[in-house]
Amino acid sequence: MEIFSDLVMGLSYAVTPINLAYLLIGAMVGMIVGVIPGFGPSAGLAILLPLTFGMDPIGAIMMLAAIYYGSMYGGTITSILLNTPGESATVASTFDGYPLAKKGRAGPALVMQAVASFVGGTVGVILITILAPMFSQVSRSFGPPEYFLLAMMGMLTLLVMIGSNWKLGVISALIGFALGTVGVDLETGQSRYTFGSAELIGGIYFIPIAIGLFGLGELFYAFYSQIHKSASGSLVEYGREQRFWPTAQDFLSTRWTMVRGSILGFVVGVIPGAGATIASLMAYSTERSLSKTPENFGQGEMAGLVAPETANNAASSGAMIPLLTLGIPGSASTAVLLAAFLLWGLRPGPLFMEQNPELAWGMIASMYLGNIILLAINIFAIPLFVQIIKVPYRILGPCVVVICLLGTFTVHASFVETWLMFAAGVVGFFMRLYGFSPAALVLALVLGPLAEEALRQTLTISRGSFGIFLDRPASLWIIGVTIALVVLLPLMGRIGAGAGRAEKAGG
Amino acid sequence: MTQLQDSLTGWIKAGALGLAVAAPFAVAAQAQTYPDPGETLDWTIAFGPGGGNDIMARTIVEILNTYDLYPGDITVENRAGGSGAVGWGYLFGQAGSGYGISTTSGSFVTTPLQADTPWEPADFTPVALLATDDLVLVVNGSSDIQDIGQFIEYAQSNPVTIAGTGTVNVDFIVPTLFAQAAGFEFEYVSFNSMADQTTALLSQSVDAMVGNPGEILGLIDSGDLRALVYSGASTPEALGDVPTMGEVGYEIGVSMPRGLILPPDAPAEAQAFWIETMQQVVETPEWAEYIRSNTLTPTVLYGEEFRTFLTNTQNGFAEVLRSVGAIQ
User: Fold this and answer.
1) Which of A186, A205, A387, B256 has the fewest Cβ atoms within 10 Å of its own Cβ atom?
2) Where does the UniProt annotation place the signal sequence (chain B) (predicted)?
């Protein structure tokens, strides 16, 4: 088959000692930028970009691509261990990853996230290899009406996040929507709630809010509950047997989760602009609504960690499709890759794979190798990372503050965002104390502006008519899937509601 | 924290120094008091690495080093934040010095219109306008519209939708002025990025869009998009025989300035030195390659003419934006 000859050709370009060295460097750098909260793949890519001037483009693209998908592996580590998402696509991994660590299952959680990332990444590359031309049609059929409907589908996730105490959940989401209105109004260009600050023109970025709400909020709560004074003084009770490997049950119970997460993540990743963050959140809520035990989600359910992890890695593979087949970057990170192509004098577009087969297929082939390398790095590094939670909390706590601060400041070097992070930390503590939902707030902050902009674009295009949603085949498809989900969700919700309410009543 | 932060800035600097090989001291080709080879030139990039402003600054520094055009050391630092407000604010704070320097881009004009920056573009000491970013108007390749004449004719009887990036941006100003001149009406649909608006056009959600040609040349080559008209003074080679707005009779004269500035009230000999130096830079083959690969329009103005250009551009923008209520 032609695909395999292309792939073998790609491998022959990718597997040279120097290129493999670049791949290894890329994978390591990706892990590191992923681990540092706030310091996401796009920032890591942008900083290394100037170094690729004058490099062989194949080695350079292999390295840059590895930074991108490698950060998806690294980003989960702090989500699990410190409740602080390393970057936006791993926010969903805190929901069950951190409870797992608190239950003394940090080791298995880290191994399972590495395995899930590997499965997601690899399934993603296989789908690129086989289906790239077909999926380029998906990217071509998405316009503002479809993005609006996609955001609406994401809002269904909110229903899941809101949890049993719906009043507090709705208030949390409304705070998120309100924060999402800050910044220049895209359609009219008017500034909303920026108070003349240049740093707020672009709106409230959700990384400082997420780091504050989750990372600092959890920290304040830990001090409030006097963990630092407790006998062992460590963040979580680490099981005496120190079981490092996941059980067979962990693998068996999540095998379909991995399949679903990979496919969902890939499809969402293919849509430019939707990306790994939305993919991971959607995978989490889908998995929860399909689960037989939805009440365990948020309490340390392995499927709740595996779903977003496979999805964000599969999405980072999927995002390569619009880049390779249309020259359209689907995310901030692939935008830097596009800039790299332009820098090297290449012309991304529909003819790119035909004109530069060695580069395109070299990169695709390297992604198979890169995922294997990353799995290996993770498995070796996990025992080291697990040591973090053995550090007494009175020492770890201040370190977390520094990590949160550093992570926020390095993103845009903005003091306004740094103060926002601290404010979000205080708010996050009280939300935690009184049973509000920080997850709903963050999700609303991500989806609110997306939905608002897409709806206003749609209505500008249709001159105010909502009929546009029914005129377009792609939007009809999404409406169909959404209705199917809406019918499914209440059924699932009814089963779990009783148990959840009883449990959370104490707040 | 400081240590880690330092190491981060260290990476950035390492990247910068990799390109900005320290120039030899005291070549003394220039006999004036400026530049003093003992002083380090502090080059501010008001945006992060990888963006248009960054690439332009690093290209110029590379040329300065290759041809030994600056005798002292140059440090290049990215000071991103607030759409350029942070970096240019830093340069503004060096008033009176001849050893701070920065490159400009569209935000240099638009950010002060949107936020309370302590500076205005005209406050800085102008060195040179080196190039302009201009836009191409494209339609979907499957559209019946083959050229700009047909587009205007169609738009005069059927109001069209045109996509662009942002509203306080040249993407909105250019089609607005062009439509006024050509006598048609359109709805502007604002997107967050070039990628979003391209997706909208490919999915046939909008009738046309404007954008910098660099990112979409591939789609134009493959026939997925069709270029109709270019807003700059001369069409880049890569776009072939697409006419300019001036050639079809509707000159609008608005573009985004890519230039070089010094702090406010910099010494006259510093300004003179940099004007003379940039006259040499724009003659190099490296500069020609930069213009070509980034599909920029080589528009060169020096000193006070550049200041006038900035003031006129900003006034033109403010007028259009005020008329639609985008700014006050």
Assistant:
1) A387
2) 1-28
